[in-house]
Specification:
By secondary structure, the protein is mainly beta. It is built from no helices and 13 strands. Helix content is about 0%, strand content about 50%.
């Protein structure tokens, strides 16, 4: 759902209901904001106090502070994926973290290790996750990249 509010006098509320679920407001804890503050940034996903961005320059958190982000050489395929994601990290040696995050900001899968020089490959089994939008976050040597994926 998209919504733009120019003045502070308007508001928006969204609700849902279904079989066995009475009508109720969608909690703000499951929502995220797509920022248009930086035209180079394709998307921003907020997970609590942190903002994940695919920008090579900076991201803006919901409180307006900035995070610096340098990209890691990473590819992930296929996209859209079905039962697995093939991840390749290139570049220098050092510790790495791989995180698969859903659109609600929940971490579904984590892998930590130390990469040697050259190429590192990892296959993530995704057969048990539902269709939707996901984010693969890669952190290596104080650099970070995020890839938007779809199942």
């Amino acid at each position: 759902m998209g919504y733009f509010q120019r003045k502070a006098i308007a508001s928006l509320s969204a609700s849902y209901s279904g079989p066995g679920i009475s009508k109720q407001a969608i909690p703000s804890t499951v929502c995220y904001r797509i920022s248009t503050l930086n035209s180079q940034r394709k998307y921003t996903v907020s997970t609590g106090s942190e903002t994940i961005s695919d920008s090579t320059k900076s991201a803006v958190t919901l409180d307006g502070s900035k995070l610096t982000s340098l990209q890691v050489g990473v590819t992930a395929y296929p996209n859209p994926f079905a039962n697995s994601i093939n991840v390749t990290i290139t570049g220098e040696a050092g510790p790495y973290n791989l995180l698969l995050i859903d659109a609600l900001g929940r971490t579904l899968w984590v892998k930590k290790g130390t990469k040697s020089d050259g190429t590192y490959q990892q296959i993530i089994n995704t057969s048990s996750i539902q269709k939707g939008i996901y984010f693969l976050r890669v952190i290596q040597n104080n650099k970070s990249s995020v890839i938007k994926l779809e199942k």
